[in-house]
Write a structure and sequence with these properties.
This protein folds into three domains: 158 residues, Immunoglobulins (Immunoglobulin-like), CATH 2.60.40.10; 99 residues, Immunoglobulins (Immunoglobulin-like); 52 residues. The relative contact order is 0.13. The protein is mostly beta strands. The chain is 12% helix and 40% strand. The N terminus and C terminus are likely disordered. Strands 1, 4, 6, 7, 9, 11, 12 and 13 form an eight-stranded mixed beta sheet that branches. Strands 2, 3, 5, 8 and 10 form a five-stranded antiparallel beta sheet that branches.
Amino acid sequence: MLPAPGRRGPRRLGAALLATATVCGATVCGVPAAAADEPGWTAGPATTRPGPARPYFYLAGPAGTVLEDRLALDNPGDREQTVTLRGADAYNAPDGALAVRPAAPGASGAGSWISFGGSGTVKLPPRTRAVVPFTVTVPPAAPPGDHPAAVVATGDGREAGVRIHLRVAGPAVAALTVEDVSVRGHGAAATVHYTLVNRGNVALTPELALSAEGLLHEPPARPARALSVELLPGRRVRLAEPWPDAPALDRVALTLTATAPGAAPATATAGAWLAPGGTAGLAAGALSALGGTALAALLLVRARRDRRTRRADPPGAPGRAPARAREDVEPHRHELTGAPR
């Protein structure tokens, strides 16, 4: 059972159902007495055979077809529960988490294709299970590929969603790009920020590899590893990757390579200065180095001018005023503007 949207907007989906149970074959049947003390109610895909519970619905068919499945609602408590059912669209939140939103009137998403027949409200007597059939009517013009959706159940101040993996028959296109790469921090605290975009029509489970070249260092490459995100068709997510092997001070050229089953590898590059204090620290260091260079040049110019003056005006030369007197008249003759005295 997965968190679902409330009245104030979409909410994120979890990774698995809280509980599912086998079905006894009737629309409503008894729940074992051992479950009677469990609070609340649960929702999940119904199953007709012994074995592990289904974590989600999987439905597939051509455009224009009507697909069917059944939802199991369990009420292990001691009081009656009223549960309302509806369809919803599933999507990626900006950080990659899965979320659902109710199918708005007139919407064309897969959530609007779900129907529970004459009524979407189910009354659950104490310690009972209800098996609710539903249909997914795929429009004739539905494009091929994955159309993420969910069944959302609401009751007793709670909401839960059960995900539907829905695929419309036709060419499956897996296409992935990685964009907007940047680096923040330096050394062990560095993180790589990037955007993944699913430009195909099927859901992707991407992997990411990282390599870099520096002017002063050669950071070790990081092999591809699976990301904890499922990227739905047409969605983009902004992610961050820790980079503890980043240099503390260097100019690096970073390359990210994203892969997914069936998709061509996607790469993106970015250049970055890594320095303590970030850009401000790098600028301060550059200004300090520039200031030291300028001071050294200034002292060199003064020394050269002093040598020329001594050669042109030797001590005791006739007709010339003593050097001390001349300095009193023109005290700044051998100084550059802004030079320290």
